[in-house]
Amino acid sequence: MRGHCARLTRTDSSAGWAAQVACPIASSQCHCELSRGSYAQQMNESLPEHVAENRRYWDGMADEWVAPGERAWEQEAAWGEWQIPNTEMPLLADDMHGLRAIELGCGTGYVSAWMQRRGASVYAIDNSAAQLATARRLSELHRLDDIEWVHGNAEQVAQPDGSFDFAISEYGAAIWCEPATWITEAHRLLRPGGELVFLGNHPLAIVCSPVDGSLPVTERLERSYFDLGRLDWRDAVDEPGGIEFNMSISSWMRLFNEIGFDVIEYIEIRAPESATGTPGPVTADWAKRFPSEQVWRLRKR
Question: What does the alpha-carbon distance between residue 95 and residue 74 come to, in Å, rounded to a whole number?
Fold first, then answer.
């Protein structure tokens, strides 16, 4: 499911973990913008393989997501491939005043914009410096100057424990980060009772993705459901590049419980009857009969 996304075909990236070299700049000043010079090269070389690959992948195609990002900044909140309005699937509260929120893998930053307009104080991190350049430009254009844009990875965030009330990822950390690592990090970042919401590919859509990476998704079971995990698309027949992650539903639930999250809600997204065409790897006809996307809403115990 290469770069499967909420605005068109694919979306944001993020990743990284404790193997990453620590930034030498004081944490009060650092925004981890390490994309320039020899230190940036050293950082890239020290990143876990999936983090470095996803950074390369998204920096290389960020120009393709400028126009979708511009459209998303202009519109009201709507989710996933099939653009389900927030009024129908309320992943964001209408009023977020007084909340500190983090977007894990923000890409061009439209979800962060939606939260800031609702009154939240927003910290937005992404693995791609090129995607963040678009986010910063659009925040200036829309005069949303208070969002904190950070070049880094969502598996290791330079913020203290319990810093946030709300965390969200739409096709950011949700698919591009190693699940146990980024979910553990999200748990650390949230205050007790804080909420994590994330949207990404449904495991059934992955199971029906041909092993050679050809598109679109089929109506056959192409791979083992129980052996889902790391999905390396670098040699894919169509849209090669990137390393994603997914798991069986029971594995997700077991992971949440072990880390310390309670499941508030689980949503399997169905394409609306009005949907047509193939905006991503899944056709509208497929997604009207089978879930192509999933949403998890979790609360920190």
Answer: 19
What parts of the chain have a pLDDT lower than 70?
A: 1-45
Cα separation, 164 vs 147, in Å, equals: 14
Q: Are strands 190-201 and 230-232 parallel, antiparallel or unpaired?
A: unpaired
* Chain centroid to CA 218: 24
Q: Which of 259, 283, 287, 288 is nearest to 196 (CA)?
A: 259
Which is nearest to 55 in space by CA: 12, 4, 112? Answer: 12
Residue with tokens 């029906």: 208
pLDDT value, residue 45: 62
| Residues paired with 105 in a beta bridge | none
In the numeric block, the tokens 């410096």 are attached to 129
The residue extents of the domains of the chain are 37-300
| SS3 assignment, position 200 | strand
Contact 205, 217 (CB under 8 A): yes
Token pair, residue 161, equals 């424990």
Which residue's structure tokens are 């905006």? 279
pTM of the entire structure?
Answer: 0.87
Q: What is the DSSP letter of 76?
A: P
**Would you call the peptide bond into 216 cis, given omega within 30 degrees of 0 as the criterion?**
yes
Phi and psi at residue 24, to the nearest 5°: -80, -5
Question: 3-state DSSP call for residue 198?
Answer: strand
Note the maximum CA span of the chain. 52
CATH number of 37-300: 3.40.50.150
What mean pLDDT value characterizes the chain?
Answer: 89
> Across-strand partners of 269?
293
Answer yes or no: are the C-beta atoms of 177 and 15 closer than 8 Å: yes
Angle subtended at Cα 67 by Cα 62 and Cα 72, rounded to the nearest 5 degrees: 105
* Own/partner pairs, 137-143, CB within 8 angstroms, 24+ separation: 138/69, 138/70, 138/73, 138/108, 138/109, 138/110, 138/113, 139/109, 139/113, 141/73, 142/73, 142/113
Q: Quick count: other Cβ atoms within 10 Å of Cβ 22?
A: 11
pLDDT tens-digit map of 103-122: 999 999 999 999 999 999 99
